[in-house]
Amino acid sequence: MAALHKLMPQSQRLVELGRKLEAEGKLTIDHGDDYSSAALKFALKEHGLN
Question: Given phi > 0 = left and psi -120 to 50 = alpha, else beta, which region is 34?
Fold first, then answer.
């Protein structure tokens, strides 16, 4: 249960990052996509970890 308490804030941070990246024009979020997954994918790609 403690792991879930850690994951929820991290997920929210990814959502915030996704929204920021979208506002900067670095991400395009399509209908049905979510900000957290898009932000994580973007960060992994930027650091060569895709």
Answer: beta
